[in-house]
Every structure is written in structure tokens, then in C-alpha cells.
Amino acid sequence: xxxxxxxxxxxxxxxxxxxxxxxxxxxxxxxxxxxxxxxxxxxxxxxxxxxxxxxxxxxxxxxxxxxxxxxxxxxxxxxxxxxxxxxxxxxxxxxxxxxxxxxxxxxxxxxxxxxxxxxxxxxxxxxxxxxxxxxxxxxxxxxxxxxxxxxxxxxxxxxxxxxxxxxxxxxxxxxxxxxxxxxxxxxxxxxxxxxxxxxxxxxxxxxx
Length: 208
What we know:
Layout: H1 2-18, H2 24-37, H3 41-57, H4 61-77, H5 81-97, H6 101-117, H7 121-137, H8 141-157, H9 161-177, H10 181-207
Helix pairs in contact: 1-2, 1-3, 2-3, 3-4, 4-5, 5-6, 5-7, 6-7, 7-8, 8-9, 9-10
């Protein structure tokens, strides 16, 4: 029955996700199975998204872009703005890796607007972070700094220390390249202090 086939498609998709960091080739087979088993738009979009992720993790960036775009097209037809915005984070990351910096800014600005409207600050900050990197690559440092500081503020509020640790030295470099040595030194010092604090936590947990 259609219901059984739908359940099989869902199962194949669940298994595909389990293979994400384990065996991409195997995972792809399950994601493709999910596609052939159903005409359900939600599952098809998720299967394309999963195939895009497999492509991204194996650096097959053109293939990943194609799969993400397939997912986005289905979701746009169904007015699923949230999932479009989330997949666009991955698409923006690919554009960044391909050196398409203006496209990165465009893609992620669109997503960031959605996340701002829905007050999803963590996803917004992921957009800001990559927008900042794109602006830095374009050597538009005031914009890069502005977005990076927005991301840093959110990472601190949400206690996302690992993201904070990545953002601080990036900001130090951006300020340095923008001619502000003092701010650059300050951010570097903050990054160092945070790294030591994290290592100390690890050391303490080992001792006790």
C-alpha cells in the first residue's frame, strides 16, 4: 500500500542519515532508495538534502549544489521557508568553498533575514559567520567585522564556546587587516584566554 511504501521511504532516509559520518557510499544508496519509493514532497526534499550533505562531506561540491537546489525547488513549491533557509546555510558554505563570495553573501543574507524574523538566533549566527568570511575574502573588512561581531555576540549569549573560539581569532585578523592593531591584539588575547580556560576544564576533568 501507499502507506507502507511511505514508511519504507522514511526508514531508508533514517538509515541514510545514520551513515552520514560512517559510509557515504552506503548512505547514498539508502537516500536514493527513499527517492524512488515515494512521491511525498517532504521526504523527497529531505532525501535530496541528504544527498547534498553526502556530496558536501566528500567535496563533490557541484553534485552537492545540484542536490540542495533540487530540495530547495520542492520546498519553495510547498512554501516551506524554514527548510529552504536551513538548506541555504549549506549552499552558502559550498559557495564560500568555491570562492563565489558575492553569491555566498546573497544566499546567506536571504537566510539570515528569515532567521531574524523567526528569532532563531543560532541559525542566524551561522549565516553571519560565513557572510563575515565572504566579506573578508572580498577585503571588505568593515562589513566582515560587523557580521563577525554579530555572530560573536550570539555565540556568547548561547554559550556556544567552540564557535566563540573560532570567531575570536578571525576577528583579530579582520581588525589587523583593517588597520586596527589594538583591537586585533585584544581579540587575540581573548582567544588565547578562552583556549586556556577550555584546556584547563579538560585537565580538571581528567584529574578528578
